[in-house]
Design brief:
Blueprint: E1 5-7, H1 12-17, E2 23-28, H2 33-48, E3 54-59, H3 64-69, E4 77-82, E5 85-91, H4 96-108
Parallel strand pairs: 1-3, 2-3
Antiparallel strand pairs: 2-4, 4-5
Amino acid sequence: MAQVAMVNSSNFNTEVMQASEPVLIDFWGDNCAPCKMMVPVLERLAQKFEGQLKIVKCNAIENQELAMQYGVMNMPTFLLLKNGQVVEQLIGAMSEVRLSDKIIAAINS
């Protein structure tokens, strides 16, 4: 059963940059209502794309250096990385369908 993993500055390189599959990073914050709304969406997408995509969460407040490195100014911010390169950046809460469509495009690119 696929799970949404937590990443931080100490495991980011291993979990994200060295991943063999595309990675969706959710930059979130504890007091962010839209971030909380996206939790069940991400959990369903982790199941749907198991084996094709890794989904991780990164607390932008606790990992400000990573947030700054990727230009995260709002939460939630979703980055789709393929081979360690950002291929898509999405900002704000969105429907499961829209996020799924972006994931499919990234996997197939």
